[in-house]
Amino acid sequence: MSAYAVDPGRPSGPSDTARLVGRSGEIGRVTALIDAARSGQGGALLLTGEAGIGKSALLEHAARAADGFRIARASGSEFEREFPFAGLHQVCLPLLGLLDAVPAPHSAALRVAFGLADGTPDLLRIGLATLELATAAARERPLLLLVDDAQWLDPASARVLAFLARRLAADPIAMIVAARPAVEPAGERPAAGTPVREKPAAGTPVREKPAAGTPVAGEPVEGVPVAGVPVEGVPVAGVPVMGVPAELDGLPVLAVAGISDDSARELLAARSPFPLDERVRERLVAEASGNPLALLELPRAGGFAPPATSSAPTLVERGFQARLTDLSTDALLLLTAAAADPTGDPGLLWTAAAHLGVDVSQASPEATTTGLAEFATRIRFCHPLARSAVYRAAPADRLRMVHAALAAATDPATAPDRRAWHRALASGGPDDDVAGDLERCASRAQARGGVAAAAVFLERAAALSLDPEQRTARTLAAAQAHADAGHPDTASELLSTVDTGTLDDRRHAEVDMLRGRIAFTRSEDDTGPSLMVRAARRLAVLDPDRSRECFLDAVEMGLFIGRAGGLIGQIVTTVRAEAPAPTAPDVLGALMVLATEGHGAAEPLLRTALDGLWTRRPALASMIAGELWDVPTLTTIAGWLVRTGRETGSPAALRLGLAQTVVGATLAGDLGRALAATAEEQAIAEATGGTPLLYHRLHLAAHRGRRDEMLALADAATRGAGHVTNLHWTLALLHNGLADHPAALAAARRTDAHGHHFLSVPVLPELIEAAVRCDEHALAAEALDDLTERARASGTPSGLGVAASARALLTGVEDHHREAVGLLAESPLVLYRARAHLLYGEWLRRRNRRRDCLEHLRAAHEMFSRSGAEGFARRAAGELRATGERVSARPPGAAHEALTMQEIAVARLVAAGATSKEVAIQLFISKRTVDAHLRTIFRKLGVTARAQLRGHPGLS
């Protein structure tokens, strides 16, 4: 609703033809988007603003402006938010006739998402299927997608639609999404006498520790809302205040603000049902604060409403509630039932009305006269605030009545979840039968990928449970589901409601493990490992094998959080003293030998442990393989993760594998492969609603010498992304490459204040070089001893070569330089090989051996340049210039110098023989986008055919 000059007494809709007032700028943005899509350059726009500000009106304007477009719509609903893919189904419903145009594996995924087929939803394939369905629809004529009230979209739909919105640039598709920003509790009530749902008092089972004793059936449960409809500004226990979905971050935004006072006066003149006194008109303009819906509603009071002390949306809601005065009981029941069930299905509403004893033939016309809703082929409220106003005005007993009637009217075979939800909201107290229904709803939601919905169902089930043990079990399950859905704060609050005084050790351990994982997710220093240690202690006698797994969790968490402050040392000490004995040699035992007896004793145990570890704990296995300088195993793990992720549809495995591919490719000097894998990992993160991983980006930025990019990533890491050790190591690498050795030394020292460097061998070469350059020879010698022990235990040319290069740097003995260059000559670690040549060349130049140094400096410069290691390449170039050599800035023709990250990903796949369709599937973009990228790639690289990409530098 907004400043359309239309009949205020009926709901607005697509048929309205009046003009918008005071919205020329907004209309320009919307029209430009549609015109661009019409010409094949699609895009998305996110409209934000308070309720009633005009977002819906702009969507209607877009629909009118999109002459010749196919239009698909969706509208978020508070109730539907608990049902995965409900919003996406609305968008896709008018396009499903084209589903046969989508490749079978992807169309099958979409059918599973919509409940048309059995199976587990695959977000990657669902996202790609939606993109393919939209592009298929746009082949016939341009496509406009309109999504209103996106703050109430179910999370699964929000993720898929956000994925789609970011991939429209090369297709004739426009998407406009409208959402309200997050609303904090208003701290005010509606007009006197209007019932409201308030925040639960202390003692609520949903959020506070329950009082001693078990609830009695039939008694009201505080904190269990009688409705599941979050109301503007009034949070409900267990339901977060909704705002713009985080998944939509990064889309172009149009903030819709209030219209000007002059436009407000113009709107009042066009819409007021009677002439207004100038003083009344000016007061209305002031009170509405530019909100068009408020301007349309306030004149209904004839200008004699009490002075406003509330926001415009609250004023509007009060105005809507005022229309309920003097309605009959039947009309109120009918309106309340319509507000309580947002499906808009008249058949369902009429059946519910019959259960309520309402005479629809009399109640429907009376309710329609309010202008709040229309009862036709669909039930529709004039504005979401009107629905909220009706619902909030209803007393608790009326709400329970209508939800009971709606539950009775809902078919348990076709809509079991909606029926269970209505039953829960009709319940006046604990009810194990209803709780069981909700638990089954949670299982169905989880099977369809709706983890967030499952969490809410389980939370309600816990609150309605009579049996204390079931209540605890359901609360823990709800907390786990909230954590899995990416809501660690909500999960943590739920765990605080568990009465731990009644738990046995096994259940206590479950709580500790879940709290530990949540703390780790939130990067709460050492809280996560500490809680895992506590859980391990509780299980030491009850379940020794699981206890050792918890201890191993603590070690792994400590390695990811960082080794500074002696955290790993503390964990190791605890494990040695308290872990139960293993039933067979395991990785935890091998790590303890490593910590206490060193690499020589631990190396064979670690290699044995690796055999069965990398399919269960691939991240830890990669750390161990890196510690052993075992490059083939690192490559195997990364390849297995990528292959498994693609075959099983596991985004987590695929993303981890791609991240490790980036690290391996970077060290191997294959920048093109590293950039392509980074682009794919980012695409998968967007498709599944995740945040792109950081640690491989840290490696890549450090090796490339990209200071600004590195500092931005470092800032993100220190704000809660974890991987602190990776951060400091890569900062040390960056600064060594840029020849800022004091900064490199400071960063390397921060990796472990206590000097243990447990499973962190890559730090040592950086620490040694920085310490030598800063004349900290004692520190360098200590680190060299550590590095040498590890290299000898590994027995690999890579490890021995890196150690020899570090020894040469510290001792200045030429034989060590030669040894390093010889050992690393066949190593796959190209960047370490190049660094050995650089150090040897620098040493030779400082001894005025110009002819000898040129060979090594040229080799180093060529390898660094072709690998995109810009900082080290500049160092090598500086050394060469010091000899009088002329140096070109970059080798000609390297693809990574000319192409963006995604263009490299496209080019490498095409160079390997992939078709545009195959590239589109792997990179989660449309075929038209692939072809658009190829045109740009051909122009930048000066080629005219796909075959010419084969063998091009950086693409093979």
TrEMBL record:
Q: Which GO terms describe its cellular component?
A: cytoplasm
Keyword ATP-binding present in the record's keywords: the answer is: yes
Which stretches make up the HTH luxR-type domain? 892-956
Q: State the residue spans of region: Disordered.
A: 186-219
Query: What Pfam families does UniProt report for this protein, alphabetically?
Result: AAA_16, GerE
Q: Name one GO molecular function term.
A: DNA binding
Protein keywords: ATP-binding, Nucleotide-binding
Q: What is this protein called in UniProt? A: Putative ATPase
Q: Where is the composition biased (Basic and acidic residues)?
A: 196-210
| Entries under PROSITE patterns matching the protein | HTH_LUXR_2
Where in the sequence is the signal peptide annotated? none
Origin species, per record, is Actinoplanes italicus
Lineage of the species this protein comes from: Bacteria, Bacillati, Actinomycetota, Actinomycetes, Micromonosporales
Name a biological process GO annotation.
regulation of DNA-templated transcription
- CDD domains in alphabetical order: LuxR_C_like
Task: State the superkingdom.
Answer: Bacteria
